[in-house]
Amino acid sequence: MQAHVDAIVEWLQQKVKEANVEGLLVGVSGGIDSAVVANLIKLACPEHSLGVIMPCKSNPSDQNYAQGVIDACEIDHMTVDLTETHETMFSAIKKQLQNKQTFNHEQEQLADANLRARLRMSTLYTLATNYRYLVVGTDNAAEWYTGYFTKYGDGGVDLVPLVNYTKGEVREMARHLNVPAEIIDKKPSAGLWEGQTDENEMGTTYDMIDKHLKGEPIPDKDREIIESLHRRSAHKRQLAAAPPVFDM
């Protein structure tokens, strides 16, 4: 695992050099993936790395977990509370939809959650511009394959150092990097709403996704869910679609 850590750190350093920037930053959620990335960017750019905590109508425990990550890896950090910004923006949009009598209650929870992710992306890029840093993402192989990320939200980043690693491998890397045990052991959650967990929302487990990605046999039910998620999220892994050049 140390060889993998060394290789990622060297790759991050090379990307900083290629982009002619000063360093790297990551949004720290209190989850295992962002905890691992925080450690990696601290190793890559010890004096030019930043962890950003961005509560947004969040469970206070998430901020406590995030602070635990910050303290453990001793990375420079700041907190930007987006709760009021989100409330102002979402309420204004919702009001206009209601005025047009086109507000879709069934989509409200998802729209609310996706706006939070996109406000966080905007915050990270604003800070990145200030510091001349690159924004580092936290998606692992399982999340990338199933599309379990918000397009132009947590998927809107410059670098994805964990995208070739399964959730299980990220967990191993977290142990190797001495990420706090409570972060490693807690149920994965994007913190989008009360009681939300990744696996309940996806309808399968990270263990099943990892096995599928490694070519191991899994129950038909899980395989069908995973492949359906992969097909439906194809647009998230592509650049904006452009038409062909038309001959006129």
Helix content: 40-55%
Q: Count the E strands.
A: 4
Q: Taking Cα atoms only, what radius of gyration do you get, to the nearest Å?
A: 19 Å
Number of helices: 11
Structural class by sheet pairing and helices = alpha/beta
> Main β-sheet, in a few words?
4 strands, parallel
Q: How much β-strand is present in the residues? A: 5-15%
List segments where confidence is low: pLDDT < 50 over at least 5 consecutive residues. none
Strand arrangement across the biggest beta sheet: 3-2-1-4
Identify the overall geometry. Answer: globular
What is the ordering of alpha helices and beta strands? HEHEHEHHEHHHHHH
What's the end-to-end separation, in Å? 56 Å
**What is the residue-averaged pLDDT?**
94
Tell me what you see in this structure.
The protein is an alpha/beta fold and 248 residues long. It has helices at 2-19, 32-44, 60-73, 83-99, 108-131, 141-146, 167-176, 181-185, 198-202, 206-213, 220-232, and strands at residues 23-27, 49-53, 76-79, 133-135. Strands 3-2-1-4 form a four-stranded parallel beta sheet, with helices on both faces. α1 (2-19) packs across α2, α2 packs parallel to α3 (60-73) and α2 crosses α7 (167-176). The N and C termini lie far apart (56 Å). The mean pLDDT is 94.
